[in-house]
Amino acid sequence: MREPFQAVRVSNQVYWVGAIDWGLRDFHGYATERGSTYNAFIILADKVILIDTVKAPFKEEMLSRISSITDPEKIDYIISDHSEMDHTGCLPEVIEMVKPEKVFASVMGVKALSEHFHLDREIVAVKDEEKLSLGTMNLKFFETRMLHWPDSMFTYLVEEELLFSQDAFGMHLATSERFDDEIDDSVLESEARKYFANILLPYASLVTKLLERLGTLHLSIKTIAPDHGPIWRRDVNKILDLYSQWALQRPTKKAVVAYDTMWGSTAKMAAAIGEGLKQGGANPRLMPLRSHNRSEVATEILDAGALLVGSPTLNNNILPTVADVLTYLKGLKPRNLIGGAFGSYGWSPAGVGQVKQMLQEMKIDLAGEPLKVKYVPDSDALEKCFSWGALIAEKLKEICEREP
Ligand code: FEO
Hints:
Layout: E1 8-11, E2 14-16, E3 19-21, E4 26-27, E5 30-31, E6 36-38, E7 41-44, E8 48-51, H1 59-67, E9 77-80, H2 85-88, H3 91-98, E10 102-106, H4 107-117, E11 124-126, E12 131-133, E13 138-143, E14 153-157, E15 162-164, H5 185-200, H6 204-217, E16 223-225, H7 236-248, E17 254-259, H8 265-279, E18 283-288, H9 294-301, E19 306-310, H10 320-332, E20 338-345, H11 350-361, E21 365-366, E22 371-374, H12 379-402
Parallel strand pairs: 8-9, 9-10, 10-11, 15-16, 17-18, 17-19, 19-20, 20-21, 20-22
Antiparallel strand pairs: 1-2, 2-7, 3-6, 4-5, 7-8, 12-13, 13-14, 14-15
Helix pairs in contact: 5-7, 5-9, 6-7, 8-12, 9-10, 10-11
The chain binds MU-OXO-diiron.
């Protein structure tokens, strides 16, 4: 009987056997408007290998895809490239069912899997650059610690020049298409960018080092198979070059203005600041936080030069939408930004002070004094907002001219 889910051939002896999560809209805080996939792969060599598994509720889909090409009980080895639950959620059950001869993970992966799942079977640790023979084919492992967990590693299938890259080079995108050449370029780039900004940004300097290392290894890579989204086979350099560029976070004249408003005054300030930025030669990107979520803001600042944040004061605090975005951005550790705090207030400007403090905690240099307006901004106040925007545009221009 035909399986309800089918494997997809990736190369001579490699098949995609993952799952498509069409309904996913929130991935630990990252807004995933296009859903996601959890990619797992089977290598049919002299040994049958399963690379990674899927999120627990998708186990049956993965097993069905595996069954469309081989009996799951024929799996000899399972390799776990990354311990996060979207790739290991069903691993304990699959181990129990398949009883593979061996399960491999990085040294830190062994620790993570054992502690996470309290497994009572041995997980074999593979070291950086260790090789594993599959008979006619060979695997090589590369530790990629903190990209983006301590346990993360790449697995390279030597004979097919195929790199299994777990989260790296992935994206949250649910589609029926499995390959980059089947998907519109603009979708690929925008979702890969969003993924980088929301997942890998805190480790951007490690991405640069990883790419340098891949260069010195002279690893010939024909295909990159990440654990989310499409497989790169048309031109792997496209995504490698994008990562190399994004990791630098080179400042541009783009200024992100993220704000929320209580009775419209802070929104008026934001609009006037935007005009000043534009007239000063910057590229303002206004993001009212009632209609832009934290993931969109994170994506926009990836190639920005300034982050200006506005909040009125509510009960001696900033608005919850602003606190949400700043908390999220703080964890992502964006670099090479100048910043500014602004907002209106009634009797206490505490909100603006808190925005300033949070930007400083993010190690963002303030480009100007915080801008506060009491109650509703009049024309003088709006003129000050315009000038504040123009001043920041001037600073951005100087920074961009200094950049190589
Ligand atoms: Fe896709 Fe870090 O898990």
